[in-house]
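Annex B.
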Amino acid sequence: MPETILTWDKLLSKKRFETTDKKYTSDESVRGEFQRDYDRIVFSSAFRRLQNKTQVMPMPESDFVHTRLTHSLEASVVGRSLGRIVGKSILERNPILAEEKNIQEADFGDVVAAACLAHDIGNPPFGHSGEDAISAYFQSDEGQPYLQNLTDAEKADLLSYEGNAAGFRVLTYTYPAHCNLPGGLSLTYTTLATFTKYPKESLPKVAGTKNTSEKKYGFFQTEKAWFNTIAQELGLLKKGNESEVFYHRHPLAFLVEAADDICYRIIDFEDGLKLGLVPQEQGMNLLRQILNDDPNRKSSLTFFDWKEEIGYLRARIINKLIEETTAIFLQHEEAMLAGTYDKPLINEVSSKPVLDEIKDLSIRLIYQNRPVLEIEAAGFEVLGGLLDAGIKAVFKPESRHHRKLAALIPPHYLHLQETATDYERILHICDFVTSLTDQAALSLYRKIKGIELPRMY
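dGTPase: predicted structure tokens.
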């Protein structure tokens, strides 16, 4: 019989992607299983590369502008607070979790923090426009011929390329050239499910859905069996028909989404203010409106630098939003467990009108700022060019030119089993392009196009 309601005793599993017996024992009094997840992500090469991937400004010259790395770290800090506050209440109502499963308040924080830390780990260069660039290549005349032998679902993965699915692949996929032990970083099932904000495959598309978890997809065809295993282990509620890998969210995924929303709404806006893209007075007034301070309240605190005041306002705002979103989560906890709640928590905070105004202003003045658009437009050419070169190197190796291109790609992206399908070969090249930092992608493109010659030592 399928589950009809989620239960925390199943949702909080320390089982992880390991297929061999452990050679060691883990002392959870020192470092819990979910904290191990966090640590593994921190030490991964994919996480390190986020330091040179776009958050607000592509390839920023200013050292205070956020990258994907700093954004992910800040989101994980917010996520840890969200998880711990929620965990405390859940444990008070479910003491059996501590008694029989050794689940502590900190475990909730560690799960959400780890998932937040990884939430952008699959993003390609040049921000979200990088996803659009990869999709555009496969929709183009250059990319279409390579899709002929693919299934409809495999084509959908590439025609609407999704960084969230690429992230799940980073966390769970092991390249054959690297190791014979599958499972990627070998994270716990709970952390992987919490990471997956869109627990569905690319097809079917849910047109016009109001459910936030159905707007995108969370894993490629190569990893859908992994996610299905996770979902069944944790008792996630099924959606769609039996043949579809389509589930309701793990409840803690709502906290990951909230942490990301809080950080990019407030901190991206802070970057825009400090860069002079948002008018100072207008921006500061909006931030103050979120706090709803009494204008007559006297304060002994005086700022002599308005940029330092932004940091003070940001800290207070984030604290307020943490308190509100955790209260909203706990209010809707039963509905989440029953699969009847599916919208962003931030949509219900008291300051939503002001946050929406900040979002609209950010889109208009920051994300659509001319230099940003120019670099993102160039990113289409760069990523499209790299994809085309990489795929030709795989599918047309008889050409000397293409063999030279293949020599520039790390060998583990080209080493596949003889039974590998066209889809798997294409996905390996997408992995390579997605893994590149903004600067590395631009540099490689210039070299293969002859725009910039490498230095000879």
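DSSP finds 20 helices and no strands in the chain. Residues 273 and 365 are 10 Å apart (CA to CA). Further annotation is deferred to the next reporting cycle.
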